[in-house]
């Protein structure tokens, strides 16, 4: 039986009112199965960022339905959203979003600490996760002492530590040079082979082609779906 991590049906989203109303998503439907690596590809203004924000519970939908890992997202409170985000989604952002005054170790441990884990246990898990991304020797370095690629690996470790079923990556190579970006994408593919479900937002077709499946978004609609040739 197929397990759906994401199930979006006929979702629409608008901003503004009256003559200034702008419809950004138009009855979008999307499913992502457990263990898939999906790229959502579209140019600026296509609606892909709004779709990402809805998937990540950063924004709310106007109409339609959304189930995340079997949980009905409709009509949840902000407190429920925060709890679901913490339990279900690991975020990786283009700008890394690391806290500059904290070490790599503490940045990675932070989601567990916010969830109530004691520091000793969180620190141990954070070190194990940094080792997994090849950065255990940099655990006590702060973000400004790390390269862009290393910072992104810290961000990936932070996304992994909670054992969330979904990793949501927003332009994860956008702030990296080409070589480092490919290394990060290769690491995503490795995580995917281990069973992680990954949804990646990008405007770059060459980046999207590294995923198993590419979903094209244009003018607020999903216009095409195709399988990537990359295995």
Give the tags:
single chain; 7 helices; 231 residues; six-stranded mixed sheet; alpha/beta; Rossmann fold; four-stranded antiparallel sheet
Describe the protein.
Helix content is 33%, strand content 28%. The radius of gyration is 18 Å and the shape is globular. The strands form two sheets. It has a six-stranded mixed beta sheet, with helices on both faces. A four-stranded antiparallel beta sheet has the order 2-1-4-5, with helices on one face. It is built from seven helices and ten strands. With 231 residues, it is of the alpha/beta class. It starts with a strand and ends with a strand. It has one domain: 3-Layer(aba) Sandwich (Rossmann fold), CATH 3.40.50. This is Putative ABC transport system ATP-binding protein. Belongs to the ABC transporter superfamily. It holds the Pfam family ABC_tran. Keywords: ATP-binding, Nucleotide-binding, Transport. Residues 6-231 form the ABC transporter domain.
Short structural description:
This protein has 231 residues and is of the alpha/beta class.
Indicate the topology.
Blueprint: E1 4-15, E2 22-33, E3 37-41, H1 48-55, E4 63-68, E5 71-72, H2 78-88, E6 89-92, H3 104-114, H4 119-132, H5 148-160, E7 166-170, H6 178-193, E8 197-202, H7 205-208, E9 213-218, E10 221-227
Parallel strand pairs: 3-8, 3-9, 6-7, 7-8
Antiparallel strand pairs: 1-2, 1-4, 4-5, 9-10
Helix pairs in contact: 3-4, 3-5, 4-5, 5-6
């Amino acid at each position: 039986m197929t397990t759906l991590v994401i199930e979006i049906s006929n979702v629409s989203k608008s901003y503004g009112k009256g003559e200034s109303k702008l419809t950004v998503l138009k009855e979008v439907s999307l499913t992502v199965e457990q263990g898939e690596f999906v790229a959502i590809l579209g140019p600026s203004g296509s609606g892909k960022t709004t779709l990402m924000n809805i998937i990540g519970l950063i924004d709310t939908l106007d109409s339609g339905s959304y189930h995340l890992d079997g949980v009905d997202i409709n009509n949840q409170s902000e407190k429920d959203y925060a709890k679901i985000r913490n339990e279900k989604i690991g975020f990786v952002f283009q700008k890394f979003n690391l806290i500059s005054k904290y070490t790599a170790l503490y940045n990675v441990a932070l989601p567990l600490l916010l969830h109530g884990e004691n520091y000793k246990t969180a620190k141990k898990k954070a070190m194990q996760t940094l080792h997994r991304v090849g950065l255990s020797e940099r655990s006590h370095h702060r973000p400004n002492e790390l390269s862009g690629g290393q910072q992104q690996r810290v961000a990936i470790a932070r996304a992994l530590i909670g054992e969330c079923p979904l990793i949501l990556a927003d332009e994860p190579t956008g702030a990296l040079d080409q070589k480092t970006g490919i290394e990060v994408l290769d690491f995503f593919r490795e995580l995917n082979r281990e069973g992680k479900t990954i949804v990646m937002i990008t405007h770059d077709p060459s980046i999207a082609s590294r995923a198993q499946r590419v979903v094209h978004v244009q003018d607020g609609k999903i216009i095409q779906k195709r399988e990537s040739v990359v295995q």
